[in-house]
Recover the amino acids of this structure.
């Protein structure tokens, strides 16, 4: 089985692959692929808070989908509406999410690894 997760070209600085240790991410095929394909790999403690700013975006997409659920009749409707919602996020907003990473990490340290309010 082939996976196309990371770009093949070299990066400078090198990318650090991060994942949240969800059960589906720790399945044997996934771990094998990571060992074979990822040099810079940051492991997370089990059940740790997901600090990815993308989780904020997913949460907003899900909330908006829920508000508009009457319009959704098929999986394709979900796809189209999700794309429309996602296209509303500006680069400024996304950069602001990433710029909060130091505060997110500090909050997790202060909460001794428990959930934080981001």
């Amino acid at each position: 089985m082939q996976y196309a997760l990371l770009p093949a070209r070299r990066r400078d600085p090198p990318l650090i692959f991060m994942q949240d240790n969800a059960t589906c991410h720790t399945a044997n095929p996934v771990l094998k692929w990571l060992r074979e394909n990822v040099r810079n790999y940051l492991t997370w403690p089990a059940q740790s808070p997901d600090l990815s700013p993308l989780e904020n975006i997913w949460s907003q997409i899900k909330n908006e989908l829920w508000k508009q659920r009457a319009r959704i009749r098929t999986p394709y409707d979900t796809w189209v509406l999700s794309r429309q919602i996602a296209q509303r996020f500006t680069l400024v907003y996304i950069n602001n999410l990433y710029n909060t990473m130091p505060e997110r990490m500090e909050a997790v340290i202060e909460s001794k690894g428990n959930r934080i309010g981001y």
The chain has two domains: 1-48, 53-110. Strands lie at 17-18, 41-42.
